């Protein structure tokens, strides 16, 4: 699947499953779910695909910037709460573990470490060190990525470092299904945001 599809479906899955109750929670859920859904593909390996990896990184950064903007616009206090945490050392260590894990994962073969439950566990632990409230949002986004990749024709090493992988082989990563999932993800995200944010 393309990065935009992973992001759309990741946000939709995160909002649908976690059911955030307030505007700040919706912002956090959407932004963190998007990062969780995108981060696995930083391991894309070919020279052409490195351009896509850069797009993935830009989308993840854009998601974080959007969280910051919406946090400021709605005066939600999300960033302030993280930065004024009593344990700034823990937050810093969490960020370093997250960056180190992604740096390691970027150099691994595509659909191996960064597409595994091991990476999910380490990255979720790192996110939890930054602030525990983000963990469910990140984990759902990450799992949505794995679930979508299992549906197509290239194996995913869910149990890295064990060899072998899983795929259901229903369709290719690009094409009609990718486009359809992108549209569905966008529609569900918009509907969920409207229901959660404006009709409560």
Plain-language structure description:
The chain is mostly helical and about 200 residues long. The protein contains eight helices and no strands. Helix 1 crosses helix 2, helix 2 (about 25-40) packs antiparallel against helix 3 (about 45-75) and helix 5 (about 90-105) packs antiparallel against helix 6. It starts with a helix and ends with a helix.
What is the CA-based Rg, rounded? 16 Å
N→C terminal distance: 34 Å
Describe the oligomeric state of these chains in a short phrase. Answer: single chain
In helices, the fraction of residues equals 55-70%
Structural class designation? mainly alpha
The total beta strand count reads: 0
Whole-number mean pLDDT: 81
Main beta sheet: none
Overall 3D form: globular
User: Which percent band covers the strand fraction?
Assistant: under 5%
| SSE series | HHHHHHHH
Report the total helices: 8
Q: How many discrete structural domains? A: 1
Low-pLDDT runs of 5+ residues are none
Task: Provide a compact summary of the structure.
This protein has 200 residues and is mainly α.
Tags for this model:
200 residues; mainly alpha; 68% helix; 0% strand
Topology readout:
Elements: H1 3-18, H2 23-38, H3 47-73, H4 78-83, H5 88-106, H6 117-130, H7 135-150, H8 176-198
Helix pairs in contact: 1-2, 1-7, 1-8, 2-3, 2-7, 5-6, 6-7
